[in-house]
Amino acid sequence: MGRTLDLINAACLAIFIVELLTRIASYWPRPLTFFRDGWNVFAFIVIGAAFVPGIRENSTLLRLARLLRVVRIVRLLPDLRVLLLGVWRSIPPLASIGAVTAMILFVYGMVGWIWLGDELPDQWGTSAARC
Fold first, then answer.
1. Same domain, 29 and 72
2. Looking at residue 91, what is its pLDDT?
3. 82 lies in some domain
């Protein structure tokens, strides 16, 4: 089974290499302009990672590099790109909401400690109050 999977892997890598070379050739007579687009550089790095000696022997890193090829689908599906961009832009406001929530919980905890620390030392007191 391992030999068959290795052959399938080699065939898929060959297809990706042919695709990459075709895309580079499409920029002829100035093939270096291929590297001006970020997605092209990304594809070149991901495909080139299969030939790096340290990554080639490490199956986990090679699997991660292969998994990164799937990210290229964002380029082909504009609706998915819009969705992912919306999720990415919502992260900072969500972090702000999380920080405000943490501060509110801290303030409520401090108020409870001040009001109830002497009356309920087992639940709200400090370790010094228990001694």
1. yes
2. 94
3. no
